[in-house]
Amino acid sequence: MEELRTNLAGKKVFSVLDMKDGFHQIPLDDESSYLCTFATPFGRYKYNRLPFGLSSSPEIFQRELERIFGDLEGVQVYFDDLIIAAEDEVTHDKIFSKVMDKASQYNVKFNYSKIQYKVGKVMYLGLIFNEQGVRPDSKQLEAIAKMPNPVNKKELQRFLGLVNYFHSFIPKLSELTNSLRLLLRTNQDWQWTNRQQTAVDQIKLKLINITTLKHFNPKENIVIQTDASNHGIGCALLQNKRPVAFASRSLNNSEKNYSVLEKELLAIVFALNRFHQLVYGHNVLIETDHKPLISIFSKCIHKSTNRIQRLKLKVLKYQFTVKYLPGAQMVLADHLSRSFITENVNDDPDMSDIVHSLTLSEFLSIPDKNLMKIAEETKRDLTLTQVIENINQNWSKFNKKISSNSLLRFYKIREELYVNDDILMCDQKIVVPISLQNYLLSLAHGKAHLGIVKCKQRLRKTYYWPSISQDIEHFVKKCRLCEHYQKSCNNEPLLQHEIPKYPFHKIGIDIAEYAKRNYLIVVDYLSKWLEILPLNNKTITEIVSRLFPVFATHGMPKQIICDNVPFNSSQFRTFCNTHNIQLQFSSPYYAKSNGLAERGVGIAKLIIKKCNNVNEINEALLDYRATPVAGLDYSPSQILMSRLLNTNLPIKQELL
Question: Which domains can be identified in the chain, with CATH numbers?
Answer without folding.
Answer: 2-130 (3.30.70.270), 136-208 (3.30.70), 222-357 (3.30.420.10), 362-485 (1.10.340.70), 506-625 (3.30.420.10)
